[in-house]
Model the fold of this input.
Amino acid sequence: AQKITQTQPGMFVQEKEAVTLDCTYDTSDPSYGLFWYKQPSSGEMIFLIYQGSYDQQNATEGRYSLNFQKARKSANLVISASQLGDSAMYFCAMREAFNSGTYKYIFGTGTRLKVLA
Amino acid sequence: DAGITQSPRHKVTETGTPVTLRCHQTENHRYMYWYRQDPGHGLRLIHYSYGVKDTDKGEVSDGYSVSRSKTEDFLLTLESATSSQTSVYFCAISDGLAGAVNTGELFFGEGSRLTVL
Done:
């Protein structure tokens, strides 16, 4: 079973509009973490935002916010006021802990966002 | 920026030859990871390390081995490269949840593009 699911392979958004990128997850670890990364065409992985499983409030970082719905196991990324520079691949990821005190990070397949002028 | 360097950044090799990719960090982070990125698959975990000489398999470990003889270096070896191992390989590091305010985010290297002919 997929641990992280991103159902939107590609999306378009008009410049200055908001866009939501979907992410659902599955885990039995009560203390997990959720991340979003951006990968522009240059290839580097850029950390955007983090949500801990015990965090009561949705995380926000500038124009990025994470719509965390724990009961639904979803962690959607919302980008407000899209800019041309937001065109990139976006990955949702989850950190799980294991009994040896290790952590694994599992990624979704990504959503390619194109911002239109 | 986290101090992570991968080498080589680009490599073309032939089927059946051994290949070693090196990941070097200057952050003294405990956890190190190797991922491969392929279109439609996102990032998939190959192997990871949770300390010197402590390593474990990820979801796509067949055909790969790793070693970590010191904190700063994590080597990924393809004993006999195949065309299916043509990919972009990312090293990533994390210090888990050490510290009072730590998201435990992954920091990535710039990636190594491997082509197996």
